[in-house]
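So, can you check this record?

>
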Amino acid sequence: MTVSEDTLSQIGRIGVIPVVTLEDASQAAVLANALLAGGVSVIEITLRTPAALEAIRTIRFQVPQTLVGAGTVLSIEQGQAALDAGASFMVSPGYDDEFVDWCLDHALPVLPGTITPTEIMAARKRGLRVVKFFPADVYGGPRAIKTLSDPFPDMKYVPTGGITLTMLPDYLRLPSIFAVGGSWMASKTLIASGQFDEITHLARESTSLVAQSRQN
């Protein structure tokens, strides 16, 4: 089986991925709709809480316009549970051959975490051309990605980890950036306090920055 290029292409077109940790699955649909109102039709639900799988299931079936993926996937077992819940793509914090192969066998787009040339080469050997760069802020941010782009000109990156709205343009101006992930659009604080209008505003600001970067 081959990975759905359409799924990856949709993520690339949007240019930003909200990385969300939900404590209450009942907030999943309203959150996804708030992001949609701001022009963001993709969301990564991290598997860090008991509510995560139900949140993925809720978004998949109640907000079908949104592409929902599972994040912080640490094992094939977690990946299978997320797939059963309706996840359309997988994101892991690190690189693991067995997990990547499982995703490819299931035609699931996977963004494994990479940070070193060795990890990038391992992902590239498996046929991946888009990988997660995590944690971006700790390991050099845009400067590190720019440096890695020289020996790996065919690789694209999705940096996540410590990225804020004000930092977003620094990443988007790099040609090797596929999309940028982070919690700045839908933080746990904003969700818990029900500030969904602010989430819409931040999503709109983010997509505006993506559009501006592609005009330059």
Observations:
- The first helix runs from residue 5 to 14.
- The two ends are 37 Å apart (CA to CA).
- The first strand starts at residue 16 and ends at 20.
- The chain has one domain: 5-209.
